[in-house]
Amino acid sequence: MVDMIEPPSLEYLRLLPLLLVFGGACLGVLVEAVLPRRSRWGAQVGLTFLTLVVTAVVTVLGWRAGDVGVSALGSVTVDHPAYFSWTALVVLAALSLLLFTERRLNGGVSAFAPQAAAVPGSVDEELAIRARTEHSEVYPLALFSLFGMMLFVASNDLLILFVALEILSLPLYLMCALARRRRLLSQEAGLKYFLLGALASAFFLYGVAMLFGYAGTFTLAGIDQAVAAGAGSEWLLLAGMAGISVGLLFKVGAVPFHSWTPDVYTGAPTAVTALMAACTKVAAVVALLRVLYVGLGGLRWDWQPLMAAVAVVTMAVGSLLAITQDDVKRMLAYSSVTHAGFMLTAVAGASTGEGARQLSSVGSTLFYLVAYGVASVGAFAVVTLVRDRNGEASRLQDWAGLGRRHPWLAAAFSVFMLSFAGIPLTSGFIAKLGVFESAWSGGYPWVVVVGVVLSLVAAYFYLRVVVTLYFADPQPRSGQGGQAAQAPAGAADATPATGPAADGDGARGGALATEVRTAGAPAAVSSAGEVGVGRASVATYGAVVAAVVVTVVFGLLPGPLLDLALQAGVFLR
């Protein structure tokens, strides 16, 4: 009698949020292949947000039902931290993708390049602009990246963790290089992110090999058992921990693996920067927590001092370098580095037991990720709105006096800056208080003291932006700004990447590009070339308003979200 082969049990219902996002991304690829060019953009937007809404509903229902467990042959763990992270990722991705849909600011076209050309203004690109060709495939790319992030935070197997790392990273490498304006800067950002990301992935894979050599298994629970039994060579174990830490800390943006952050954040399309700043941070930090707590909990006396040192150095470098920046996007990039250090303070103070300290550490970190992510999306949404005749005006001196001309938008940006600084009545204050309490109770009061001092340093450059908005006088603009002031009113804010002043790479646009640039573009600034606020779509303003509301509400009433984060603070082993 032939024995029957039993099929593997994959728990499809439990994995449904992952499958929905992956399915939506695959359908998006089919849309690119099937629908005519002019119909793709609307179809992709509708499909993407439908996927996100359904995924959010299914995730919340599964979380409320308590459907937790190790799934997919032990490679994926669906537990409360995974559900919390999935919900946060979907919500933050939805806010970020609202910025992807913005077309009014660019004269009826998106912020993404119409063609993969190195130099704007070529004949082929001019024809593509006139035909309204757009990179609508950015939506399935974003969904693929989101799928990788969701798999990343729930991976219980080191090989699956590596695959998830690549799935979340590769679409981001592509999207970073697709900016319509500042084309060469954008492509440089994509290339730099790819090369440094590949190097970090190599370290990560090396660490995976070392840990497999030590434990004989890729599962985190199996590695934890091997560590407890002291089964292998300690050098293999330490080398594996170091390699994996490099890969994960690179994604977190911690020092000394942060060098990609300012260049990539500055060069990438601002909508993509918002997606990276919010969602990638959530995925990387939660994956780091899972690996350290579940797989390497027995080595906590080795990795806790390491995380404490990295946290201090990251806070110091990010804060000090942010002070010197005169570009808002670059300042926000170093702000991201600084906040990575604040998050790592809670990681350093964590306990691997299921007591109150672990609940405090993991829960406060999860709350911090949400507070920071929402404020980041809102801040970058405001950056997309502040414009001159060449497009986004990200120089800080160009924002002088903006609070007097556009008080509501300046007030929104000020809320985000105050939240980043950890000022009371914002969610950032509660988040920072939580991670400091975790580090203090975890036995690292010196990290808290350093963190408080560096918080004061960080508050300086955040408040400097607020002072510039309300109290500084606008400075006369020269160079490109002066040339832009002579441009006709119709060319105020259309397709800026097709002209030499907008891109800065010496490209010369032709007649076709000029025709498209001047057709129906909304005037964003005055005839004097003054920096102002572009006429954006409801989606972009909606992202700003939603971010402000969440930041203020969870600063005044943090209880519901904080309780939810604390309840989600125990990893399933």
UniProtKB/TrEMBL annotation:
User: Transmembrane region positions?
Assistant: 12-35, 42-63, 83-100, 138-154, 160-179, 191-215, 235-257, 269-293, 305-324, 331-353, 365-386, 407-431, 443-463, 538-557
UniProt feature, compositional bias: Low complexity: 483-508
The record's subcellular location field reads: Cell membrane; Endomembrane system; Membrane
Q: Which reaction does it catalyse?
A: a quinone + NADH + 5 H(+)(in) = a quinol + NAD(+) + 4 H(+)(out)
InterPro entries the record matches: NADH-Q_OxRdtase_suN/2, ND/Mrp_TM
Q: Does the keyword Protein biosynthesis apply?
A: no
The annotated topology with respect to the bilayer is: Multi-pass membrane protein
**Main location (coarse class):** membrane
| Annotated Pfam families | Proton_antipo_M
The answer to keyword Heme applying to this record is no
Give the record's GO CC terms. endomembrane system; plasma membrane
Question: Which class of enzymes does this protein belong to?
Answer: translocase
Q: Which PANTHER family match?
A: NADH DEHYDROGENASE
Q: How does it assemble?
A: NDH-1 is composed of 14 different subunits. Subunits NuoA, H, J, K, L, M, N constitute the membrane sector of the complex.
Instruction: Give the protein's function.
Output: NDH-1 shuttles electrons from NADH, via FMN and iron-sulfur (Fe-S) centers, to quinones in the respiratory chain. The immediate electron acceptor for the enzyme in this species is believed to be a menaquinone. Couples the redox reaction to proton translocation (for every two electrons transferred, four hydrogen ions are translocated across the cytoplasmic membrane), and thus conserves the redox energy in a proton gradient.
Name-wise, this protein is NADH-quinone oxidoreductase subunit N
Native species: Auraticoccus cholistanensis
